[in-house]
Amino acid sequence: MIYRLGAHAYNAFLDIGKDHDYKSLDDWRENYYTRKFNWREWENYYPGKFHCWEEKDDLDDFIDLYVRCSVKWLREPVLANCIAKPPTQLAAIPELPDDILAHIGKQAYNPLEPRATVHLSSASRGLRKLLTPELRQRLQEEHEAAAALCRKVGTSCKALRRAVVIDWDNEGLSVTDLTTLGTLGSVLPALEELYLYEHSASPDGVQRLAEKLGAGALPGLTSLNLGMSVGDAGALALAAALDRGALQRLMSLFLRFHAIGDAGLVALAPALRRLPALEHLHLSYPVGDEGLTALVAPPSPPAGALPAAAGGLKKLKRLNLNDTLITDAGCAALVEALDSGTLPALKQIHLDYIRTASTAAKEAVQAALARSRALTPKPRRCRGASWAFRK
């Protein structure tokens, strides 16, 4: 029993470490970063007991030490105190503080692979206390919901956890399914592209999905494509998720097929302007002048209010407004934003299939874009340096 517990706890923590980029035990024991640690050395102290301890307390202290030396943001103060301790002194190492244990327990909580959570919690007194019966029940319910979602889209929990691209096209996703996907946002670290197309989906689905995205959710996501109705409430929930710190690496956002209107874009625009890496933005019907103006030419903050956050679409390269309802007034707002340098990186503006704006107004936008691109400094090659090296 002790052997199984030790092996499961060790492997569970290794698996969790892959997702959260913890410092590995091999690196920790690299002889003050010079000699690679060999697990066989432990057999000198515990002959024939690889991943096995005679006393449960030894296992607890080892797991706590491993956790302590694995969390990135605890490297320096912990390594200074613990790296020189031989295995025979493990029992003298105290239990981790409650706040650190709470952080580790939160990172280990994974509805896609609940066994890792249970195995790791069983290996430490502090972590065992955190996994209460209520939390176990919640973990089981969330795992069952995640498994049902995976069955519906024809995948497995393991494959979903490791997915880099999710492309679900009219899979019949319900509000419950999208809510479940939102709860999994913190355990999908590898996901980079998410495509969801559900033409008949209720706007409540996107709202519930966004409401479940907590701080740091979907940390690797760079492209989000929502081919479904978002609605004003969904746009507001998505803005709140961005403000909480979700989707912070987002570079491309596609809101197609009647996703949001003016009220939704007005609610979402401030959060979009704060995204540090946003490069591509695709909007469609029924966005009009009011939403576009809030995005590219927001009003100045009132006296005494905090200044706008950094970002401001400074990296936006492509803006797709095809099939929207903008008029000549919206085009004029674009011209003003381009001439004022508000969109310095913009290279493409798509204004096709817009019947509410005149041809002259759309041509004026393209002319302003050409002026803006002409003013953008281009990287210069230092020919003199290469000539000097050739000499």
Description:
- The protein has helices at residues 2-20, 25-28, 42-45, 56-68, 75-82, 98-108, 114-121, 125-130, 133-153, 157-162, 175-183, 203-211, 231-244, 262-274, 289-296, 328-339, 359-375, 383-390, and strands at residues 165-169, 193-197, 223-227, 252-255, 280-282, 318-320, 348-350.
- With 391 residues, it is of the alpha/beta class.
- Strands 1-2-3-4-5-6-7 form a seven-stranded parallel beta sheet.
- Strand 3 (223-227), helix 13 (231-244) and strand 4 (252-255) form a beta-alpha-beta unit.
- Helix 1 crosses helix 7 (114-121).
- The chain starts with a helix and ends with a helix.
- The model is unreliable at 1-10, 16-94 and 385-391 (pLDDT under 50).
Short description:
With 391 residues, the protein is of the alpha/beta class.
Question: What is the topological layout?
Answer:
Elements (H helix, E strand, L loop, with lengths): L1 H19 L4 H4 L13 H4 L10 H13 L6 H8 L15 H11 L5 H8 L3 H6 L2 H21 L3 H6 L2 E5 L5 H9 L9 E5 L5 H9 L11 E5 L3 H14 L7 E4 L6 H13 L5 E3 L6 H8 L21 E3 L7 H12 L8 E3 L8 H17 L7 H8 L1
Name given to the CATH architecture of the largest domain: Alpha-Beta Horseshoe
| Multimer state | single chain
| Binned strand content | 5-15%
Helix amount: 40-55%
Secondary-structure-based class equals alpha/beta
Average pLDDT, to the nearest integer? 76
Shape: elongated
Number of helices: 18
- Sheet of most strands: 7 strands, parallel
CATH class of the largest domain: Alpha Beta
Counting DSSP E segments of at least 2 residues, the number of strands comes to 7
> How are the strands ordered across the major sheet?
1-2-3-4-5-6-7
Distance between the termini: 72 Å
Rg calc: 27 Å
Indicate the CATH topology of the largest domain: Leucine-rich repeat, LRR (right-handed beta-alpha superhelix)
* The CATH superfamily title of the largest domain: Ribonuclease Inhibitor
The tally of structural domains comes to 2
